[in-house]
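Researcher: Here's a chain I'd like modeled. Treat it as a single chain, no partners, no ligands.
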Amino acid sequence: MLIRRESPADVSAVRAVTGAAFAARSQTPVPVEVTLLDELRGCEAWLPALSLVAEGPGGEVVGHVVCTRGHIGAAPALGLGPISVHPGHQGRGTGSALMHTALGAADALGEPLVALLGEPAYYRRFGFRTSTGYGIAPPDPAWGEYFQVRTLAAYDPEDPALRGTFAYAEPFSRV
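Model: Modeled as a single isolated chain. Structure tokens:
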């Protein structure tokens, strides 16, 4: 498996993988995660260096992860998601490889932290912890322990600018 930056030629394959990954949970013909990706690609929060695909042995796209610009007040941070793996490739380490690569890339770019909404039991293995332990409130208080943060090397626990309510890129609130 190869994890690499998404190219313009990958967009339709990423849409297909994301649609397949979320189809079982979707109430609509096109899962909201596909629409969210489309909207994120067109906004200023899109960070091409942090849109990554997993290639299968034949060069086909089998997974995708993206981090977009978020904020804690005026301080920049990252929001991770969606992350998707084609159902035929789940359970083979593709999601873990995408997650580790995204975190490593974000760290290499000097980002302070990555936030996400997800299952704590799953994301704990990647170093994510409940956001409130860092003084960061979720955009929706009802998210509770499901809103998590992974700090990176540039994170300064003494920096008061990195405390407050996290805000995802604008499409997250619209889609």
